[in-house]
Amino acid sequence: MLRENQRHFKFDWITIILFLLLVAFGYLNILSASHEGEITSYFDTSQSYGKHLIFISLTLILIVLTLSLEAKFYEQFASIIYIVAMLSLVGLFIFGKEVNGARAWYGIGSMTIQPAEFAKFATALAVARYISDLQTNMQTIKDQLRVAAIILIPALLILLQNDAGSTLVYLAFFFVFYREGLQQVYLIIAISLIILAVLSLKFGIIITSIATALILVIAYFFRRKKRGLIPRFVVIFLASVLISFGIKFFYTNILKVHQQNRISLWLRLEKDPAKLEKMKKEEAYNLLQSEQAISSGGFSGKGFLQGTRTTGKFVPEQHTDYIFSTVGEEWGFIGTSSVVILFVLLILRVLYLAEDQKSQFSRVYGYGVASILFIHFTINIGMVMGLIPTIGIPLPFFSYGGSGLWGFTILLFIFVKLDSNKINEW
Amino acid sequence: MRKLLLITTVILVGLIFIARLFYLQVYDNSAYNIFEDNAIRKVYNYPKRGYVYDRNGKLLVANQPSYDVMVIPREVAPLDSLDIEEFCALLKITREEYDSKLRKATNYSPRLPSPFVPQLSKSDYAVLQEKMRKFEGFYIQKRSLRSYQTSIGANVLGDIGEVNRSIISKQPYYKMGDLIGKQGVELSYEEQLRGVKGIKFIQKDRFNKNIGPYKDGKFDTLPQPGKDIKITIDAELQKYGELLMKNKRGGIVAIDPRSGEILALVSAPSYNPNLLVGRDRSKNFTRLFRDSIAKPLFDRGLQAQYPPGSPFKVINALIGLQEGVVNVDDQVTCRLGYYYGSRKLTGCHHHVSPIAMVNGIAQSCNAYFVNIYRRIIDKYDDAGVGQNKWADHAKSFGLGDFLGYDLNIGRPGRIPDGNYYDRAYGDNRWGSTYIVSNAIGQGEVETTPIQLANMTAAIANRGYFYTPHIIKEIEDDTIPSKYTTPKYTTIDKKHFEPVVQGMFDVYTKGTAKYLQVPGIDICGKTGTAENFVKIDNVRTQLTDHSIFVAFAPKDNPTIALAIFVENGYWGSRFAGRMASLMIEKYIRGHITRTDLEQWIFTHSLENEYEKPQSGEPFKINGQSSLQVIENYAIDNSK
Question: Which ranges does the record mark as transmembrane (chain A) (predicted)?
Answer without folding.
Answer: 13-31, 52-71, 77-95, 147-176, 188-221, 233-251, 331-352, 364-391, 397-416
